[in-house]
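Input (structure):
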């Protein structure tokens, strides 16, 4: 765990002091821009069997890191010894100015990028804010043990946020909140502070199955159960190799991630736009043309995507994804020319997907 040095270590408070400390920490978190804050213990025994079953079904695909940490993911005190509590927060990311998602999806020569990835890399933004919160706690109350996480370690974020009352797990497996919808990131502080625990909220999906019905690849195989191997977010981000042939036509123009299950969710009528300037749209990624994305050189990709979550997938995977989008786009001379220009690309992965895309437009070739 990390900690800030301080002359007096924190004392275990009596319940009244602990309750006041909890309220103060939540106020500070809101000042930093977090939307909802909850505190829970480390007992994930109710969630662990479902997670192990998900792994046993191989639903994690190539994401070996999901399995390699054993029970550290579902037992926080094994990951960070001494952890007594988890402070769970969410941070809204939907920009105020952003192209309508449905309109972009309905324009097949445009590139659809998941709304969370259009600005600065959220890992950095979230970690900085969580660190600021921990520094303030230390400066006020004294030294304490903590470690911050932002989708960056074996942490069951949704299970912890559910226990902490930040929201409930939707049928698409993402967290939902009645006041905020689901367009937010989750972050955690593992700590030894003996703070009072918050109660979970009730679930409010009811009989709705909109997210299951809308999924382009039928990746939501049952309520609350996702086969990542079919998920477009997995295929375009986590999966490094060749995209299965039968899934390519279903990806449409989604070149980085997929938001369909969120776009359709009735609770996102209440989504709160972000006040975080780091999440503002960069490089026109909310509504750019597939051809333009495909024309970037590697240097342009690196320059434009620097500081973005998209940078992590690398140039070849970016071109692979855009090639699939172009294969699904209307046949125009410009689309065919763009694909032909990369027929001899240096990356075999790109060449393969370009050949597939060209065969869709020029079946006799």
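Output (sequence):
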């Amino acid at each position: 765990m990390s900690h800030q040095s301080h002359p007096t270590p924190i004392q275990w408070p009596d319940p009244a002091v602990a309750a006041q400390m909890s309220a103060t920490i939540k106020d500070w978190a809101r000042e930093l821009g977090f939307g909802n804050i909850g505190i829970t213990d480390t007992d994930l025994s109710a969630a662990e069997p479902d997670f192990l079953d998900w792994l046993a079904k191989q639903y994690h695909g190539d994401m070996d890191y999901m399995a390699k940490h054993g029970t550290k993911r579902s037992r926080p005190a094994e990951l960070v010894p001494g952890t007594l509590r988890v402070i769970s927060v969410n941070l809204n990311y939907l920009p105020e100015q952003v192209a309508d998602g449905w309109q972009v999806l309905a324009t097949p020569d445009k590139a659809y990028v998941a709304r969370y990835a259009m600005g600065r890399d959220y890992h950095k933004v979230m970690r900085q804010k969580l660190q600021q919160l921990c520094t303030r706690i230390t400066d006020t109350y004294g030294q304490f043990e903590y470690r911050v996480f932002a989708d960056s370690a074996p942490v069951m974020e949704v299970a912890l946020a559910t226990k902490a009352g930040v929201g409930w797990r939707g049928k698409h497996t993402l967290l939902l909140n009645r006041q905020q919808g689901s367009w937010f990131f989750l972050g955690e502080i593992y700590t030894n502070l003996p703070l009072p625990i918050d109660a979970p909220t009730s679930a409010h999906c009811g009989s709705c199955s909109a997210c299951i019905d809308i999924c382009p690849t039928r990746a939501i195989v049952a309520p609350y159960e996702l086969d990542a191997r079919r998920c477009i977010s997995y295929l375009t981000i986590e999966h490094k190799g060749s995209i299965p042939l039968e899934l390519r036509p279903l990806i449409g123009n989604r070149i980085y991630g997929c938001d369909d299950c969120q776009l359709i969710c009735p609770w996102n009528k209440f989504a709160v736009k972000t006040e975080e300037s780091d999440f503002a749209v960069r490089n026109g990624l909310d509504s750019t043309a597939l051809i333009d994305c495909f024309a970037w050189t590697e240097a342009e990709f690196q320059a434009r995507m620097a500081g973005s979550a998209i940078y992590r997938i690398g140039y070849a995977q970016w071109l692979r994804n855009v090639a699939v989008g172009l294969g699904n786009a209307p046949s125009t001379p410009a689309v065919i020319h763009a694909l032909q220009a990369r027929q001899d690309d240096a990356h075999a992965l790109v060449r393969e997907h370009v050949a597939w895309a060209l065969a869709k437009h020029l079946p006799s070739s």
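Notes: The chain has two domains: 15-96+118-191, 210-361. Residues 4-9 have pLDDT under 50 and may be disordered.
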